[in-house]
Amino acid sequence: MKRNSKKGRDNTAFLYVRLSRDDNLEGESYSISNQKKLLTKAAKDAGYTNIVIFADDGVSGVTMNRPGYQAMIAELEKDHAAAVFVKDMSRLGRNYIEVGRLTEEFLPQHEIRLVAISDGIDTNEGENELAPIRNLFNEWYARDISKKKRISNKVRGNSGEPLGPPPYGYIKDPDDPKHWIIEPEAAAVVRKIYDLFLAGRGTEQICGELEQAGIPTPTAYWREKGIGRGRGSLPKKGPSNWNCASLNRILTNQEYTGDLINFKTYSKSYKLKARLPNDPDNWAVFKNAHEAIIDRATWERAQAKRKGIRKRKALDGEVSLFSGLVTCADCGSNMHLHFNQRNHEIRFFNCSNYKGNRGGTCESTHYIRVDFLEQVVLEEIRRLTKYATAYEDQFAEAVMQFSIRNAEADRETQQKNLWALEARDRELDRLFERIYEDNISGKLTNERFARMSERYDAEQKELAEKIKAARKALEKSSGKTLTKDMFLSTVRKYTRVRKLTQTMVNELIDHIEVYQAEKVDGVWEQRLTIHYNVVGPVTIPEDLPLPVPEISVNTRQGVWVNYAASQKK
Description:
By secondary structure, the protein is an alpha/beta fold. It has four domains: 9-149, Resolvase, N-terminal catalytic domain (Rossmann fold, 3-Layer(aba) Sandwich); 175-307, Hect, E3 ligase catalytic domain fold (Alpha-Beta Complex), CATH 3.90.1750; 326-387 and 498-565, no CATH class; 405-490. The protein is 43% helix and 16% strand. The protein has 15 helices and 20 strands. The protein has helices spanning 32-45, 67-77, 89-92, 96-109, 131-158, 184-198, 203-212, 218-225, 244-251, 296-307, 370-390, 392-400, 408-441, 446-492, 502-508; strands at 12-19, 50-57, 83-86, 113-116, 121-122, 170-173, 176-182, 260-262, 265-266, 276-277, 284-286, 326-328, 335-339, 347-351, 368-369, 509-514, 518-520, 523-532, 552-556, 559-565. The strands form six sheets. Strands 12, 16, 17, 18, 19 and 20 form a six-stranded mixed beta sheet that branches. Strands 2-1-3-4-5 form a five-stranded mixed beta sheet, with helices on both faces. A three-stranded antiparallel beta sheet has the order 13-14-15. Strand 6 (170-173) and strand 7 form a beta hairpin. Helix 5 (131-158) packs antiparallel against helix 13, helix 11 packs across helix 12 and helix 13 packs antiparallel against helix 14. The radius of gyration is 34 Å and the shape is elongated.
């Protein structure tokens, strides 16, 4: 190949030094400064007068995408050096295939000498048959370190120690780095985001309000405070230019309730640094590990709102308080919001599955006016709150009908079974930790360690499936009890309500079933069933002085429709 004729190439040597956290285990000889000293002396002794140093500090050798290494390769491609000096072959990398390609193809093609001092390799002295084997051992070392780290992280993570940095709104406790404490300024922003979301704002609207208020994004905030987080680039539009992705991460982060969650991400291989989302069933969740920024009831309401049916707009873009909450009582389809073509003041819902529409199968439109629906829901909420305050015991009993009181015995059995499974899982973690320490100290050989860890790992995988099934059933029932109490407290908040709000509707109502209007004894009636969050439809005893609201609407000229409650027992 054509060689660079630039004067000085033959006198130039590149020194490559690298250190990662894994190499710290090898002692001071692997420090960046000592590598530089060792290689500089060796290069000068070999007659090179022009020495250029490339370094990667704190970067794993498993990846070849290292800034210093890539910069050196770019210069070598330009024929700017005649030799490369490294302390040993592992400094070039711990990737058998890539390092082999470098030493057996790239360097020979560019007529570049390679010297690995500690390994006794100098390509000027001929081919070294042991070099490929050393590269293989270097990769095995990386694989072994990765495996031990995974076991160590598993032990730490399952013991309740945070494996990642605290989210926006928290900082590490100066007195205990394994514990998070609230950072007041950022926490206030988190609370504001939840308040705006539950008040009916969309994520884009919230981003706009935060930007208008000049509130910096999490990345900008961390940089402003000198916190070593947020390495991504700041938005070009300014430090207050929020985006929906950041907002959604905040709105779905369970750790704001005080929970600590480990193993939310994982990597497929020690060679792949990309983190992938882990199945929630594989998370390790520790309840109330730190102080909550968002109370659990508020967080649950936000998740329910996010998971709800997509909001539908009328043709003019309007969104109703009940968009996404109104369903057909006969076919279960979502009902869409429209406005009257002749009188745009009249808004109404009808069944999206009505057979009059293309492809529909429902027999009736289930037409209902929005103003009629608003009156009914407001009066029914007033009726519900009166029931809750004037007849508290009866109300609590009615709500309990939808709780898990009849499943307490089964729940106790499930809890005991789960405790036993979790106890064995914790015992396996302790065994993992013990054999890991024995392996590090030399009491347990690598071969024995590999066999034992493989056996324990297989048992834990089987346990994980059993724990997953037991935990799902238990958490479902426990969650109902918890949310039922939240529902009771929420109802009491609206004892003197005078006007419907988006927050009120989101907090109280799961969905509303609408029946087709029918003529009963010569009078048109439309039945509705309001399903409240968690507890479903609440039946108010007829003998109580809390009558069904008398509400009528003139749907067409001369045709009046009356409200008729349809409570499912």
